[in-house]
Amino acid sequence: QVQLVESGGGLVQAGGSLRLSCTASTIIFGLNAMSWYRQAPGKQRELVAIIRNSGVTNYVDSVKGRFSISRDNAKNTMYLQMKSLKPEDAAVYYCRMTGARDYWGQGTQVTVYS
To answer: CA angle 46-25-57, nearest 5°?
Structure first.
């Protein structure tokens, strides 16, 4: 069974940076997209960034120019580099890998204080 393990969350001051990682326990067949979502208390989960097999990336408007999604296929790993963090970026961040099936990470907490 495929498991996604996230790491890299934590507490950071506004303006700071964090890099989240998400590693799959095995190769995911038919993988066609990797994405990051986040969910803040009392809010719906939202798509933050996505990278497709083609390499095309998309971001939610609120993080454009500050966040960058990338992947290392050899390591079955995806990343989310977050810079210039704001208090409104605070949330639980989830990774998702979509292939023949859908896989989610357990979530990692990002806390931003001003």
So the answer is: 40
3-state secondary structure 1-22: CCCEEEECCEEEECCCCEEEEE
15-66 tens-digit pLDDT: 999 999 999 999 888 889 999 999 999 999 999 999 999 999 999 999 999 9
Secondary structure E strands in the chain: 4-7, 10-13, 18-24, 33-39, 46-52, 57-59, 67-72, 77-82, 91-98, 102-104, 108-113
